[in-house]
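Work package 3, deliverable 3.1, input record:
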Amino acid sequence: MAKIPAIVWLGIGAGVSYLSLRVGGNFTFFFYFGLVFIGIGVARILLSFVFRKKESRLEKRVIPRELPKYFLCPKCRAQVHAGTNFCWKCGRRLR
Ligand SMILES: [Zn+2]
C-alpha cells in the first residue's frame, strides 16, 4: 500500500466519483468513497513535498563533508580502500 503513487489514488477517486454521479441513486456512497481516495492522493502529494524538504535539510546536517574513500599504504604506497584492514598489495595491517 505504501508504494501506490498519489496519482493512482487521484485517478481511482476521480473515476469512482464520476461513475457514481453518472449512475446516481444508491451509488452516492461511492461518490464519497471516491472523494476519500482523492483526499488520500492530495495528502500523499503534500506529505511527499514535506518529507523531501526535511530529507534535504537532514542530509546537509548529517554529512558536513565527504570522507576520503582511498588512502595510500604506508609501506608500499598502493591505493587502499578506506574500509579495508589489510593492504591488498603487500598485506600490511592498516588498523
Ligand atoms: Zn601495502
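The pocket of zinc ion is lined by residues 73, 75-76, 78, 87, 89-90, 92 (CB under 6 Å).
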